[in-house]
Amino acid sequence: MENNILAMILGGSIFILLLVIALYAVYVIGLWKLFKKAGKQGWEAIIPFYNTYVLVEISGLNWWYFLIAISGTILGMLKINGLDYVANIATLVTRFFIFWNIGKKMKQNHVPIAILGTLFAPVMVMILGLSSSYQFDSNISVSPNGPFGEEKQGTSNNERFCLGCGVKLKPNAKFCDNCGKKVD
Questions:
Q1: Same domain, residue pair 123 and 165
Q2: What's the rounded Cα separation, in Å, for the pair 163 and 134?
Q3: How many CB atoms lie within 10 A of CB 7?
Q4: Which domain holds residue 173?
Q5: Quick one: 126 and 161 in the same domain?
Q6: Which CA distances in Å does 47 have to 27, 42, 64, 122, 141?
Q7: Considering only CA atoms, which of 134, 61, 68, 77 is closest in space to residue 103?
Q8: CB 166 within 8 A of CB 40
Q9: Run means of pLDDT, 10 residues per run, the chain, 184 residues
Q10: DSSP string spanning 42-78?
Q11: Contact, 115 vs 132, CB < 8 A?
């Protein structure tokens, strides 16, 4: 009887571990494509915590939102009861702000993107990263405080990047000098 219970617990644990790994892989694939659209290197999506920093950076939020975004994970690992729940709620609010600004920079209705990105980040990142109907425009004005505060201009000065390899494009380029891909 005890062996059956232990086998069920072990099997369930392995299943959950594989599910978490699969979800993270899906999230990284979507981030890779989203980062390339935003002019970042795709490999930046692989590194945990750093990919969150880059996501905060491309959303145009202040750098300290990164600290809030990872606080729930860190406090959860430290097992600080009570405080980790508050940090997880702050992380959800921060994720909402991140996807709010990214939705604006994608020239889309940013409210559904913010809600779906908060609740189903791996799915939303895959949609934003892989869909050709979502194009990232870093020149769009966003607030460094999410939905609140004054908007500030993008900092890219009309820089464009190749969606194939992420290399900065020359002004008025029709093809990427690095990979030869046609530029829209």
A1: no
A2: 12
A3: 10
A4: 156-184
A5: no
A6: 12, 10, 19, 15, 28
A7: 134
A8: yes
A9: 85 94 92 93 93 93 90 83 85 93 87 92 91 83 73 56 67 79 71
A10: GGGGTSTTHHHHHHHHHHT--THHHHHHHHHHHHHHH
A11: no
Give yes or no: residues 121 and 183 share one domain: no
Domain match, 58 and 116 both: yes
CA-CA distance, 152 to 60, in Å (whole number)?
A: 9
Kindly state the tokens that stand for 36. 């390339």
- What is residue 155's predicted lDDT score, i.e. its pLDDT? 47
Q: How far apart are CA 144 and CA 40, in angstroms?
A: 19
CA dihedral 173, 174, 180, 184 (to 10 degrees): 110
Question: Which residues, in sequence order, are bridge partners of residue 175?
Answer: 182
- Number of domain units in the chain: 2
Could you read off the pLDDT of 8-49 as tens digits, one per residue? 999 999 999 999 999 899 999 999 999 999 999 999 999 999
Which pLDDT belongs to residue 35? 94
What's the DSSP call for residue 162? -
Does residue 7 lie within any of the structural domains? yes
Q: What is the DSSP letter of 169?
A: P
Burial 10-37 (b: 16+ CB within 10 A, else e): eeeeeeeeeeeeeeeeebbbbbbbbbbb
Q: In this structure, are 16 and 97 located in the same domain?
A: yes
How high is the pLDDT of residue 158?
57
For the entire predicted model, the pTM comes to 0.74
